[in-house]
Amino acid sequence: MTTAMPRSDQEGRSDYEDSTRHLVAYGVTGFAGVMLATVAGFQILEGISAIAKDDVYVTGPNYTYQFDVTTWGWIHMSLGIVALATGIGIMFGKTWAHVAGLAVAFLSCLSSFSSLPHAPLWSIVILAFNAFVIWALCVRINNRDTW
After folding, report:
1. Helix (H, G, I), strand (E, B), or coil: what is residue 147?
2. Cα–Cα distances in Å, from 110 out to 20, 63, 66, 135, 142?
3. Long-range interactions of 92-98: CB distance < 8 A, separation 24+
4. Residue 74 and residue 47: Cα distance in Å, rounded?
5. How confident is the model at residue 64, as a pLDDT?
6. Is residue 61 one of the residues assigned to a domain?
7. Mean pLDDT calculated for residue range 76-82
8. Domain of residue 80, residue span
9. What percent of the chain is predicted at pLDDT more than 90?
10. What average pLDDT does the chain have?
11. The pTM is what?
12. Phi, psi for 14 (deg, rounded to 5)
């Protein structure tokens, strides 16, 4: 009886290692898509609450990135809609969505950082989620041979 050893390619990786890398890469990408869609939902809700009732948020006296809270609401809601579409694209494995996801997560980080005085804890949570999305998409892009 012979035992079949996994075939190795020129780089010294076996078929088993390649299949494991593929599964991990797809799992990380799915995670990024779900997280980006979750962040999008949060941003849409944040935008709606700022547009509908702008006295919900605390306004500081002299903040460098001073906009009307309603303006911040439109920014967050618009970014949330784009992020939702991108997150769905990532979950369906669209190539454009991987690159767009990095851009959207970065812009979402900027908008959350800029609205930090209005909702500090909420902004920090959104920043952390976006950091995870950026990490997950960078891991996937770094392993391009698994696409």
Report:
1. coil
2. 35, 15, 14, 16, 23
3. 93/29, 95/147, 97/33, 98/29, 98/137, 98/140, 98/141
4. 6
5. 54
6. no
7. 92
8. 23-54+66-146
9. 23
10. 78
11. 0.72
12. -90, 170
Mean pLDDT value across residues 46-65:
69
Is 60 part of any domain?
A: no
Domain assignment of residue 35, yes or no: yes
Q: What share of the chain is helix, strand, coil (3-state, %, to 5)?
A: 75, 0, 25
Residue 92 to residue 37: CA distance in whole angstroms: 12
- Give me the number of domains the chain comprises: 1
For helices 15-52 and 69-91, the axis angle rounded to 10 degrees is: 160
Comparison of pLDDT for 108 and 145, the residue scoring more: 108
- Looking up tokens 């005085």, which residue turns up? 117
Q: What is the pLDDT of residues 102-117, one digit of tens each?
A: 999 999 899 888 878 7
Strand partners, 14: 8
Give residue for tokens 């078929």: 15
Q: What is the pLDDT of residue 61?
A: 58
Residue 7 falls inside a structural domain: no
